[in-house]
Amino acid sequence: MYRAAVIGDRDSIYGFAALGLDVFPVEDSETGSKTLRRLAEGKYAVIYITEALAAQLEYELDHYRQQPLPAVIPIPGITGNTGMGMRMVRKSVEQAVGSDIIFNEND
User: Fold this and answer.
1) Is residue 71 classed exposed, middle or buried when 0-12, 13-18 and 19+ CB atoms within 10 A define those classes?
2) In whole angstroms, what is the distance from residue 12 CA to residue 76 CA?
3) DSSP-derived pairing of the beta strands 44-50 and 22-25
4) pTM of the predicted protein model
5) Is residue 107 part of a domain?
């Protein structure tokens, strides 16, 4: 059976343990990258990652966006929303349909 995990700084993720999710605190992007790879190769179908860590691992997250599993979902950390989650949604939509049909902004 697949599970759900949360990766990020300790203060941002420990509340998710009360919900039954597996939490993996990381201190830096190198440890975060190794943890993400280990979880993605394991039994995790959904991996929540703090936006701050996701920003540091953007290249690696692009690889997982093209895979059916795991779904890697950015969440705000204790420092607040950075907009990383919305940028990832925009990238996914553009990749799926070929244009920005949700936000439809002229950059």
Assistant:
1) middle
2) 8
3) unpaired
4) 0.80
5) no
Mean pLDDT, residues 36-55: 93
Of 56, 57, 49, 60, the closest CA to residue 85 belongs to 49
Name the nearest CA neighbour of 6 among 50, 41, 38.
50
3-state SS assignment for residue 57: coil
Amino acid at 73: I
Specify the CATH number for the domain of residue 83: 3.40.50.10580
Assess if residue 104 is contained within a domain: no
Encode pLDDT of 71-102 as tens digits. 898 888 887 777 776 777 777 666 667 666 66
Q: What's the pLDDT band for 104 if we cut at 50, 70, 90? A: low
How large is the average pLDDT for residues 16-21? 94
Measure CA of the first residue to CA of the last residue in the chain; give whole Å.
43
Q: Read off the amino acid at residue 61.
A: L
